[in-house]
């Protein structure tokens, strides 16, 4: 199983990129969103990958974070969702957006992805709703991986000097990490994972830039008894 590739961008196509890893080229299929975020040709790149093996076909799919790769794996488990449909959903919503849509039961958000009909979108929400809190919780442990496509790479990938990678930015708390920490805090307060995840997803949708503390405050207001 090929789980991750680190190399240099050789060229990119309409739906894939060729990554040169020590002289061996790997064709990796990516969503539109991921392709747009990749560095220029000749620059270093690191992608987590998922290998699809069929009788007459082998394809690699690439993701900038493990969180996105996990959503791809879960989306593929839904009847009617293949690799192309999964990439379409992730390309339209991003991993955090997929989590929010599924947690909130937002069928229309899933349906906005190219090639996804209303029945398939509804099936995604129904089948993955109970799994969403667990995936959201991954955000805290994967915070470092969520910030950038390019991580630390070797100074020399092959005999030809590789372009120096830009210094990695200082770690910041991403939206996924903030949601994960807020989910953990609400769970510690005794809220069920499903209701906590739903409140946090709603709070994150209302305030995309909110940090952990702000998400907790907003979620607690949503969970407070009405009347």
Protein model, in words:
The structure is a single chain. With 227 residues, the protein is α+β, with helices and mostly antiparallel strands. It folds into 3 domains: 4-64, Nucleic acid-binding proteins (OB fold (Dihydrolipoamide Acetyltransferase, E2P)), CATH 2.40.50.140; 66-137, 5' to 3' exonuclease, C-terminal subdomain (DNA polymerase, domain 1), CATH 1.10.150.20; 138-143 and 173-223, Helicase, Ruva Protein, domain 3, CATH 1.10.8. It contains 10 helices and 5 strands. It has a 5-stranded mixed β-barrel. Helix 6 packs across helix 8 (175-188) and helix 6 (132-141) crosses helix 9 (193-206). Residues 141-174 have low confidence and may be disordered.
Furnish the topology, listing elements before pairings.
Elements: E1 4-12, E2 16-21, E3 24-29, H1 32-37, E4 44-54, E5 57-63, H2 66-76, H3 83-103, H4 107-111, H5 118-128, H6 132-141, H7 143-146, H8 175-188, H9 193-206, H10 212-223
Helix pairs in contact: 2-3, 3-6, 3-9, 6-8, 6-9, 8-9, 8-10, 9-10
Task: Give a quick set of tags describing it.
227 residues, alpha+beta, OB fold (Dihydrolipoamide Acetyltransferase, E2P), DNA polymerase, domain 1, Helicase, Ruva Protein, domain 3, 48% helix
